[in-house]
Amino acid sequence: MSNDNGEHPSNTAKDPPAHLTVTLEPGSMSSSNQKTSAPRLPVLNPPGPNTNYLDWEMVVEAYFRHVKVKHVLDTSDIKLRKATWSDDNDLICATILQIIDPANNRYVRPFRTDGRGMWIALAEAHQDTSTGGKVYWIRKLLIARMEGDNIDSHIDTMAKYHERLNALVTPEKPLTPDDVHTAALLGSIPKDWVACVSNLMNQEGIKTATIVSALKNESIRRQSQGDIISVSSTATKPPAKSGNPNNPPKKKFCTMCNLDTHDLNSCHNTRRLIEEHKANRKKRYESKDQPAPSGKSSKPPARAGRTSTATLGASSHSNHNDSDTDYSGSEVEVTAGNAVASLSVSFNPKASGDANLDSGCSMSMTPHLHSIDNPKLDRTPVHLADHSVVESTHKGMSRLPIKGNTSVKTLVVPALHEPLLSIASLCDEDLTVVFTNNSSDIYAASKTQV
């Protein structure tokens, strides 16, 4: 809208005044036979939301009509031109160039000597007569909501929207229900769908049926694109290996490292611990075979001769301060204690190798499944001495290497290197372990004499 506040811009070179006094005198051949008065004409703002084209066009057209030069804007037919057409055309060109913002020069530059061309170019730059232009102002009218309590301001705003829309409606281009339908349709869909009809919005006279057809085509394209992506992703998957669906392949998981990149059989940490354990046992056995120096014992006093009988039960944990520990010791929910002695006979008739007596184990364990009677699947967590956690695979009964048919509950833990015989489990069976300098023996508690 035109600015009538009378304020003067600080820089007239950059900010032209809202109104400009123009003094023009028609030529001798002009249709106006008297000197033109000096009118105050509004300056046309750049195109955009703040354009004042409607007011500017009304004032300037009235001025051209007053000075009898408007016939230049009405027709382009050379046969209908008046004798004063050339002078009147120059007057219009000079006037327009003085009363427009410099931002409008790019629209009129191709029509430097054509007053009618300048007039039409400015109208097209400020008035969007395309389908999108009509839809824009229809939506502004439909979705506008009053803010605050100032009803007068809201009425003025709605009137401006109506004025802008009404300027786009002509007898040749009337406003139809089809335009309202298009505006409502485009306002109801997501923004990413509007892009597919943006080219149609830049054209004039587009029907709603054309908009609907474009939206349906976009829907088909998106569905087909999704199918192509789905087929491509399916084709890249390797074919499933044939096998029994009821027995899927087990996933690799190392209970020592808590990783699923390998299993316990290929674990380097497990291999290193086993090798270190074997080396320590070998050194211990070699030191036992060497003769002790005169006057000195090669074994700690607490184990060499001070205690010859181990009473089973709570007192089995009395040797916590012993430094000679068995690294393969393990536990169920409790840290493994010391392996106080090694049996000189096998763990039971089916097993191979020696079994360690462990005062810290709450249950006997063995890595050999074949040494267990009536094994059942079991997954009991077992905490090793190095603070790692492994799981048992089976649970059953193992026979003790003594006379009779005495058995103890035993877990099968493949991660162990050698069997562990829990002193606590022997206590439950009313047994006693007698230690000597070279070995240890298991007896029934009722028959033991120390």
TrEMBL record:
Domain of life: Eukaryota
Pfam family, one: Retrotran_gag_2
Designated name of the protein: Uncharacterized protein
Transmembrane portions of the chain: none
Comp. bias regions, Polar residues: 1-13, 28-37, 223-236
Sequence ranges of Low complexity compositional bias: 291-302
Region feature (Disordered): 1-47, 223-250, 277-330
